[in-house]
Amino acid sequence: MERYRRLNIKLTPQRLAILKHLEGNKAHPSADEIYKSVKKKYPTMSFATIYNTLEALKEKGNIRELKIDPAKKRYDPDMSPHHHIICTKCSSIFDVYKDFDIRLPEETAGGFKVSGKNIEFFGTCRKCK
Ligand code: ZN
Ligand code: MN
User: Fold this and answer.
1) Taking the model in full, what pTM does it have?
2) Which ligand is closest in space to the CA of residue 86?
3) How far is Cα 44 from Cα 94, in angstroms, rounded to an integer?
4) Residue 129 belongs to some domain of the structure
């Protein structure tokens, strides 16, 4: 509870339920999956509340929005630097904790000072292959 106060968003019981669902969640759930799960305990929960809460958390830098799944946005509470791999059959997303030493040659960086990178891998997971 205390650590959630630092998030700088107004804490309603519904928002707390969403935060608790996300905490330590490694599944990279979509808004719809979060909705279905949190609704079991909070039947009055609306999809708009889920979506608005996710947007607020994202804006405050508490969660990451992933675009690796072409079908839907996925959310990740793990803000530590890491990359992702997605299964093209079942859309499971796994974390890749490795720092790849990739540098953009100056002539390809378009004058940018590069501050980060985000690598998306895809393939077939252990269950699907
Ligand atoms: Zn799979
Ligand atoms: Mn992740």
Assistant:
1) 0.88
2) 1
3) 32
4) no
